[in-house]
Design goal:
The chain has one domain (about 10-370): Cytochrome-c3 Hydrogenase, chain B (Orthogonal Bundle), CATH 1.10.645.10. Helices cover about 50% and strands about 15% of the residues. The protein has helices at about 40-50, 55-70, 80-105, 110-125, 130-145, 150, 160-170, 170-185, 200-210, 215-220, 230-235, 240-245, 250-270, 320-325, 330-335, 345-360; strands at about 10-15, 20-25, 280-285, 290-300, 300-310, 315-320, 340, 365-370. Helix 3 (about 80-105) runs antiparallel to helix 4 (about 110-125). It is globular. The model has no long low-confidence stretch (mean pLDDT about 95).
């Protein structure tokens, strides 16, 4: 049999004398947007969800809204239904990681049966009543299983020691949080931590970009000439317990905790889509006739689709996904992955794998640690 093909994302780090050194994120994902050029908008909208193995609903929604904006058409007949679909997909993506991928990393059994039960409900069509019931069950999942130790306590933890005590009393995920914190805080990157991407409307994206994004931006996106991190941490950095972890240098744990908060947020959106106090998950704008840009908040962060339509055909198309932000050559994984000391190669591998999972690429990935040998 031939060797297995390399994943789309290769994450390579060096270890020399107990020091994790240079880190490289080699993102080899092909730019699928060019497959849409020359097609009609309807053909493109139908094709987009089939081009992406993950977040097909978000990708399809972004394509539909971008094309509708460019054509000057209404973007959604039922915006509340779109919101529910996006929230269900985001919850599904989070639970895949939380129930199947994180436990084995810390020697625990994946919760396959629990995931399968939720998977069946999250991927089926939802009306308002079934979405309301499912949203309540997701909120119960967070309170009774994922963060049970925090909900059983009479008050929120006031310091890191209390946070660990609460976490350790809350099942597998709590144990993972406690163990991750026990590994120790990450040393601050020499170049500083990666800025968090602010929540921007489609119109604000047009303003920041000076128009539609080009291919270079989509391969290595930056905001105000700097890489940025998108995803749950960017959305929940102001939450008190996330802020506590960030303040103590436990950025991986902060991302994991924020991911669970996102599940609860998805549950709330399923029950009350388009509530006035929270921004919608999808937005689109047309800066000029024939041009459209849509932004959709996914489990992993912001997704941008931009289109230029001429003579009823797509003349140009651009897609920028969260992975290109978080695994940018100067982004969060590269900055935080290197430049720190470790007690062992095993600990280094665990932290690098946890960092990658916390940033959650939407493509297959592999973490490689190259150990230097000295005579």
């Amino acid at each position: 049999m031939g060797a297995a093909a390399d994943p789309a994302l290769l994450l390579h780090a060096t270890l020399d004398g107990g020091q994790v050194g240079r880190v490289v994120a080699d993102n080899r994902r092909p730019q699928a947007a060019q497959l849409l050029v020359g097609r009609s908008p309807a053909e493109a909208v139908a094709l987009v969800p089939r081009l992406f193995a993950l977040c097909g609903c978000a990708q399809g929604t972004a394509a539909r809204l971008a094309c509708a904006a460019a054509l000057g058409e209404p973007g959604a007949a039922d915006a509340a239904a779109t919101e529910r679909e996006l929230a269900a997909e985001a919850a599904h993506e989070h639970l895949w990681r939380l129930l199947l991928d994180w436990p084995p990393l810390f020697g625990l059994q994946p919760r396959r049966n629990r995931y399968a039960e939720l998977h069946r409900r999250l991927v089926r069509p939802l009306d308002a009543d079934s979405a309301y019931a499912l949203g309540g069950d997701l909120l119960d999942l967070v309170a009774r299983e994922l963060l049970a130790g925090f909900f059983r306590a009479l008050r929120e933890p006031r310091n890191l020691a209390e946070f660990v005590d609460h976490a350790a009393a809350g099942g597998d995920l709590g144990s993972i949080l406690a163990e991750m914190i026990g590994i120790g805080a990450a040393e601050a990157p020499a170049g500083g931590v990666c800025p968090l991407l602010p929540a921007l409307t489609a119109a604000q994206w047009i303003e920041h970009l000076g128009g539609l994004p080009d291919a270079a931006f989509c391969r290595q996106p930056m905001l105000d000439d700097a890489p940025a991190e998108t995803g749950p941490l960017a959305r929940h950095a102001a939450s008190p317990l996330v802020a506590l972890l960030l303040g103590q240098g436990h950025r991986i744990s902060a991302r994991l905790f924020a991911k669970v908060l996102d599940v609860a947020d998805c549950g709330s959106r399923l029950r009350r889509p388009l509530a006035a106090e929270v921004p919608a998950l999808a937005d689109a704008v047309s800066p000029a006739p024939g041009l459209g840009l849509a932004c959709v908040e996914t489990a992993r962060g912001v997704l941008l689709h931009a289109v230029r339509i001429e003579n009823d055909r797509i003349a140009d198309y651009a897609i920028c996904a969260p992975t290109e932000w978080n695994f940018h050559p100067g982004g969060a994984f590269v900055r935080e992955g290197g430049g720190w000391r470790t007690a062992s190669a095993d600990t280094a591998r665990l932290r690098l794998q946890a960092l990658a999972l916390a940033l959650d690429p939407c493509v297959g990935f592999r973490v490689e640690l190259e150990e230097s040998t000295h005579a």
